């Protein structure tokens, strides 16, 4: 993705990040722009470019989802209230985190819609156009999949905006219909994308295939979830997939480039224009004032509770990769119990290491100039999807056990833990797979979605949960986010607001 393009059309800004260079193209209207397949690619790149903005994965959406889980809590109590509200489930309809990314997600969708519609103007063979347009279908599905899981019924727009008045009065589409459209987009992408791409930040058939399995898992369509996940597994060699030998290498900005495990990544490039392409995860999750990685330390905002550290078996190699228990202050290594002695806005808890230890940051802006590739989907998750879905349709399956055991074998890294799984009941295996997802995918912004789709809140937010009791959580309200108050004010057709807000 080597171009930077900005479309300004009826108020919708579509921007793209690049792997290598940025070439300002100017301000363009869609009419007359689409002449060649490369023009379709340029518009498609815009959709993926929005994903690395501060409004989306750079900070607002990713942090929101992390804080709502049972594994990441607020560390610095002086951080913005809009963040604390998600940790404490006191979110109002005017929450700045949600308002910050709602528009950005629709900009992703708008860019994808422009590419899909623009392809109709290009005189080229269908197989040439569709291979590119399929990326836009994937981007649109990816964006809507986040929105529908968070908000339920939402406005569904699948064409470029040509009538601003009509767009400003659009009503909500039922979640079931949104899901059907997501599946249709991913099916198109699976049909036309190539088996592999030059970069995992460009979706290949494997990414569409894998996301279909996750969408069906989320919907409770377990047979289809298994079929799609099994399709990825059966094509492991064709798709050039596999588990990385060393779990740490998955979170190494250099090693990840050649890894076979990621299916789709967001590629931060170590440079930014304002908040375009800035990587805030290291700053938000890093230890405040820490000197050990040479980028100025973090802000101690999103930090695991102490019980996450205490309940994670130390024989599990993933624990040491995922958490930092020491920091360096004044050239001396200190343990987490005394972090606050050296910075009053730090917190005496182990911190997330996945986004700080080897993420390739520059020394500026607390690591925001990162060239890290964030894995939106990786092969280990596909194996766990297959195991979870198969257990629902065929309990006691040795095939399902084998998928879990393959992931667990890497976690041992020479130890005897975690042991292979065998002979569990359906209920016990279901619980085990969700626990394995919790540790394997820890802090990778998956846990909230697992809590929501399996309705686990009463269990995980109880007094004996990892973060202790979350008394403000209301199951009748908080599995969905509020629709942004500004959007409802501008467009009453979006009413009613989600229950409880």
Number of helices: 19
Uncertain runs:
1-28
Binned strand content: 5-15%
Q: Which outline best applies? A: globular
Strand order of the largest sheet: 2-1-3
- The count of domains is 3
Q: In which range does the helix fraction lie?
A: 40-55%
**Top-tier CATH class of the largest domain:** Mainly Alpha
* Structural class by secondary-structure content: mainly alpha
Q: Note the run of SSEs as H and E.
A: EEEHHHEHHHHHHHEHEHHEEEEEHHHHHH
Organism: Neolewinella maritima
Main location: membrane
InterPro entries: SusD-like_N, SusD_RagB_dom, TPR-like_helical_dom_sf
Protein name: SusD-like protein P2
Question: Outline of this structure?
Answer:
The protein has 501 residues and is mainly alpha-helical. The protein has 19 helices and eleven strands. A hairpin with a 2-residue loop joins strand 8 (326-329) and strand 9 (332-335).
Question: Can you offer a commentary on this structure?
Answer:
It is found in: Cell outer membrane. Belongs to the SusD family. Its main location: membrane. The chain is mainly alpha-helical and 501 residues long. It folds into three domains: 211 residues, Serine Threonine Protein Phosphatase 5, Tetratricopeptide repeat (Alpha Horseshoe); 168 residues, Serine Threonine Protein Phosphatase 5, Tetratricopeptide repeat, CATH 1.25.40.390; 91 residues, no CATH class. Helix content is 43%, strand content 8%. Helix 3 runs parallel beside helix 4 and helix 8 packs antiparallel against helix 9.
């Amino acid at each position: 993705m080597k171009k930077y393009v900005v479309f300004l059309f009826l108020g919708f800004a579509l921007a793209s990040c690049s792997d290598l260079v940025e070439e300002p193209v100017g301000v363009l209207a869609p009419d007359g722009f689409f002449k060649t397949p490369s023009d379709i690619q340029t518009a498609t790149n815009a959709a993926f470019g929005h994903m690395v903005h501060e409004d989306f994965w750079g900070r607002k959406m990713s942090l929101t989802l992390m804080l709502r889980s049972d594994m990441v809590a607020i560390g610095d109590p002086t951080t913005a209230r809009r963040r604390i509200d998600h940790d404490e489930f006191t979110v109002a309809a005017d929450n700045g985190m949600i308002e910050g990314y709602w528009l950005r997600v629709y900009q992703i969708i708008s860019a994808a819609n422009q590419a899909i519609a623009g392809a109709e103007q290009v005189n080229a063979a269908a197989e040439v156009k569709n291979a590119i347009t399929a990326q836009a279908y994937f981007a649109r599905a990816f964006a809507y999949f986040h929105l529908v899981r968070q908000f339920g019924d939402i406005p569904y727009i699948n064409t470029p905006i040509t009538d601003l008045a009509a767009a400003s009065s659009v009503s909500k589409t039922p979640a079931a219909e949104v899901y059907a459209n997501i599946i249709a987009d991913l099916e198109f992408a699976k049909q036309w994308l190539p088996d592999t791409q030059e970069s995992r930040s460009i979706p290949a058939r494997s990414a569409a295939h894998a996301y279909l399995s996750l969408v069906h898992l989320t919907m409770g369509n377990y047979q289809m979830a298994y079929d799609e996940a099994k399709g990825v597994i059966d094509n492991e060699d064709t798709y050039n997939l596999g588990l990385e030998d060393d779990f740490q290498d998955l979170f190494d900005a250099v090693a990840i480039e050649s890894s076979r495990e990621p299916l789709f990544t967001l590629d931060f490039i170590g440079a930014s224009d304002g908040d375009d392409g800035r990587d805030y995860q290291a700053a938000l999750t890093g230890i405040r004032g820490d000197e050990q990685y040479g980028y100025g330390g973090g802000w101690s905002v999103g930090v695991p509770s102490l019980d996450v550290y205490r309940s994670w078996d130390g024989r599990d190699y993933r624990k040491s990769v995922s958490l930092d228990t020491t920091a360096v202050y004044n050239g001396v290594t200190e343990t987490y119990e005394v972090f606050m002695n050296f910075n009053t806005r730090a917190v005496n808890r182990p911190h997330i290491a996945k986004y700080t230890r080897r993420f390739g940051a520059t020394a500026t802006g607390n690591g925001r100039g990162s060239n890290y590739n964030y894995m939106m989907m990786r092969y280990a998750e596909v194996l766990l999807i297959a195991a979870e879905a198969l257990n629902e349709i065929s309990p006691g399956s040795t095939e399902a056990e084998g998928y879990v055991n393959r992931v667990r074998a890497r976690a041992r890294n020479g130890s005897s833990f975690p042991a292979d799984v065998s002979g569990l009941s359906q209920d016990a295996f279901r619980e085990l797979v969700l626990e394995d997802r919790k540790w394997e995918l820890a802090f990778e912004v998956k846990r909230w979605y697992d809590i929501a789709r399996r309705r686990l809140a009463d269990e995980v937010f109880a007094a004996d949960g990892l973060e202790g009791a979350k008394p403000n959580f209301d199951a009748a309200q908080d599995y969905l986010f509020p629709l942004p108050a500004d959007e409802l004010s501008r467009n009453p057709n979006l009413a009613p607001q989600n229950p409880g807000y």
